[in-house]
Write a structure and sequence with these properties.
With 390 residues, the chain is α/β, with parallel strands linked by helices. It has 13 helices and 12 strands.
Length: 390
């Protein structure tokens, strides 16, 4: 893993940290304000019929604050077009409706966010799109799941909540050979740790609610692509469907992104210390973290990620009730859904974020606990986990 990396939008000239702070963040031409204004406006005065100023006519179609964020997103992922949505699932819904038609087929991972699975199983399938499940950490399993009707291969890496790793470049090759689009949910890694487009992905998906916003105060989603035609098609659907990010939400994410690099470094550092403690705890039967040398995806993660992130899952002896009790006993780790904020969170996936996959091929173990390791002092986090484990 390298110590720094650049984005393809600034070839060899600026580091990620610099791009995160400056891309899309042009000083206000009227006042010189260094932070883009919140354009809390629905419509725009036109200079005669069809005479748009800067292309703005109505804020569902485009808003200057959202434009700043979308330019920033594209730069961070090394893409040509970024699109900001009201939530991660709104972004996914737009993408699926743009890519798919009745009769098409999608390969989805056997470990994925419960909301993504629900979207496929309960919503998209109702209009004639078929899907099948594959272990995306095994490229040959993905290849075997592809049919002549497959239009998309969906990947999460690291995955939620079992922290599985998919070789993006290998699966991208399978997608190209089959004529399918490769979609990578990059939420757990963030563009600071991993850039799927550079590895061959066609579309990057984010829940900006998580690490991009970083402060548990905004809900948002994003799509980033490097194909101009696909970007235009997605933008058409975004406007037609309307689930766009509001200006204040876009502004909050822009603010969060400026500290993304330093936060992710601390998240990763703290998570490494947490996993070290958990692997030595008598009540912990298994620790799932791609930074561990024994993790089956460790070598691939080390190749395609800058570091290993702040998400950790572990299993405890005593089964589901014991796992629930660990969650309930935590004090500094807040019991709650979501992830990626500066504060540490703990949850029971089987009863909380992944309840929708119960009884399916994506069902998670009952003894599993998921941590979003924040940026607090590591010693305080370790002490809290030790008392929660008893």
């Amino acid at each position: 893993m390298s110590d720094s990396h650049t984005t393809s939008s600034t070839p060899g000239t600026q580091s990620f940290e610099t791009v995160a702070i400056h891309a899309g963040n042009t000083a206000d031409p009227l006042t010189g304000a260094v932070v883009p204004p919140i354009y809390q406006v629905s419509t725009y005065k036109q200079d005669g019929v069809g005479g748009l100023r800067g292309g703005y006519e109505y804020s569902r179609s485009a808003n200057p604050t959202r434009t700043a964020l979308e330019e920033n997103l594209a730069a961070l992922e090394g893409g040509r077009r970024g699109l900001a949505f009201a939530s991660g699932l709104a972004a996914e819904d737009c993408l699926l409706r743009a890519l798919l038609a009745p009769g098409d087929h999608v390969v989805i991972p056997n470990d994925a966010y419960g909301g993504t699975f629900r979207l496929f199983a309960k919503v998209v399938s109702r209009w004639g799109v078929e899907w099948s499940v594959a272990d995306t950490s095994d490229p040959e399993a993905v290849r075997a799941a592809v049919t002549d009707r497959t239009k998309a291969i969906w990947v999460e890496t690291p995955s939620n909540p079992l922290l599985g790793i998919t070789d993006i470049a290998a699966v991208a090759q399978i997608a190209r050979e089959s004529g399918a689009r490769l979609v990578v949910d990059n939420t757990f890694a963030s563009p600071y740790l991993q850039q799927p487009l550079a590895l061959g992905a066609d579309v990057v998906v984010h829940s900006m609610t998580k690490y991009m916003g970083g402060h548990s105060d905004v809900v948002g989603g994003a799509l980033v692509v490097d194909d101009e035609a696909l970007g235009e098609e997605l933008a058409y659907h975004q406007n037609a469907m309307g689930a766009v990010a509001g200006p204040f939400d876009a502004w909050l994410v822009l603010r969060g992104i400026k500290t993304l690099a330093v936060r992710m470094d601390r998240h990763s550092e703290n998570a490494t210390k947490v996993t070290d403690m958990l692997t030595r705890h008598a009540r912990v039967t298994s620790v799932l973290y791609p930074g561990l040398p024994e993790h089956p995806g460790h070598e691939i993660a080390a190749k395609q990620m800058k570091s290993f992130g702040g998400m950790v899952s572990f299993r405890v002896e005593g089964g589901e009730e014991a796992a629930v009790e660990v969650c309930n006993r935590a004090r500094l780790f807040t019991l709650g859904e979501s992830l990626g904020g500066v504060e540490s969170l703990i949850e029971h996936p089987g009863r909380m974020t992944h309840a929708s996959v119960a009884g399916s091929a994506l069902e998670v173990p009952g003894d599993l606990v998921r941590l979003s390791v924040g940026i607090e002092a590591a010693d305080d986090l370790l002490a809290d986990l030790q008392q929660a484990l008893g």
